[in-house]
Prior knowledge:
Elements: E1 12-17, H1 22-38, E2 57-63, E3 70-78, H2 86-91, H3 97-106, E4 110-118, H4 127-142, E5 147-152, H5 157-162, E6 165-172, E7 175-180
Parallel strand pairs: 4-5
Antiparallel strand pairs: 1-2, 2-3, 3-4, 5-7, 6-7
Amino acid sequence: MEDLKPHIENLYFRSFRAVDDRAACMKFIEGHTHVLEIFGITQITSAKIDWVLNPNVYVILVSAEENGKALAGSRIHVADGKTPLPIEDAVGEMDSRYYSMVEERRAAGTGEFCGLWNSWEIAGLGIGSMQLSIACVAYAGLIKLNTLFGLCAPATYRNSIRGGFRVNQRDWNQWQILLSKRRPHRNLYPD
């Protein structure tokens, strides 16, 4: 299968507010949905698409050419006190502490790193879990967030830790609840 992968010279990381670019959001949705379907995943809170209309959602897309096909992506949902973060929807009923953890951090600026995916074309390059973790932690500083929550699968755990997250909870069927430990926003590299 490696021989069938396209040769990619450059990767472009583009960030934007979801409500500002509906076409790019659709590229994100198509790519993310395709990856989830490959793994037989159809019921996941971050796969809902109502975030496209939320002015407090930011998207990072990766492509091989400017404004090209989405090869990977992730989102940051800013906690606004109105719309629950995807992690609150996913685990809040199982553990209500997450509602208060988000609320305690909201005034200082918190959100969620979610919707992380990458296509087979760039699988194994560390783009999906490592580089997007770093990009999201750095971008969080630019939008004045001090912390990010994340729900992490076992396959992406190690690179998420390397990308600037730390374990906060370890009890949802081997998935990890992570919390970023971001440096001040002047520094674009996470701890």
